[in-house]
Design goal:
Protein name: Condensation domain-containing protein
Largest sheet: 2 strands, parallel
Order of helices and strands: EHEEHHEEHEH
Structural class: alpha+beta
Distance between the termini: 34 Å
Strand content: 5-15%
Helix content: 25-40%
Number of domains: 2
Strand order of the largest sheet: 1-2
Shape: globular
Length: 159
């Protein structure tokens, strides 16, 4: 594995500058690969089909084919995309990795669909995984508060 530098914004301000700086470093053939989770909203919209695997996932298919990156916490929990996703979107644990994930992936697919719908009018630079994590927190609040929604979950950790 080639070592590299992952650039992460620590505050929402200055994202555009950080995006263009990362892009410039990449273009300059930095001695180490430089990556960032920042992207213009319209570029993300153009990549919408990259998330179609969530809706098409079937048992027996590698989980990483639908969710990439797949984050493993210190406790061995499997989270989609980033550590900050709400626990209602946990995909299981290392002990249950072979278990059924369809219901959670369906909720995740709805969440991603909603995020892409909200991107349509936007032209700013986004921290995509932070946007996803924040949306997961909001979705969990709505589900617990209303007891409804797409594939609603009313108990933390329920499939």
């Amino acid at each position: 594995m080639i070592p590299g530098v992952q650039v992460r914004p620590v505050a929402p301000t200055g994202r555009a500058r950080l995006f263009w700086t990362t892009l410039a470093l990449t273009q300059e053939h930095a001695p180490l690969p430089v990556t960032s989770d920042l992207a213009p909203a319209q570029l993300l919209l153009a990549q919408r089909d990259a998330f179609d695997a969530l809706a098409r996932w079937e048992d027996g298919t590698p989980l990483s084919a639908a969710v990439n990156p797949l984050v493993v916490t210190e406790e061995g929990l499997l989270k989609p995309f980033t550590y900050d996703f709400h626990s209602q979107f946990d995909l299981g644990s290392l002990e249950t990795i072979a278990g059924p994930h369809g219901a959670v992936l369906a909720r995740l697919s709805h969440l991603i669909d909603d995020l892409f719908s909200d991107l349509q009018p936007r032209f700013d630079i986004l921290d995509w995984y932070a946007e996803c994590a924040a949306a997961s927190q909001e979705a969990a609040k709505r589900r617990v508060g209303t007891g409804g929604g797409h594939g609603a979950v009313t108990q933390p950790g329920a499939p």
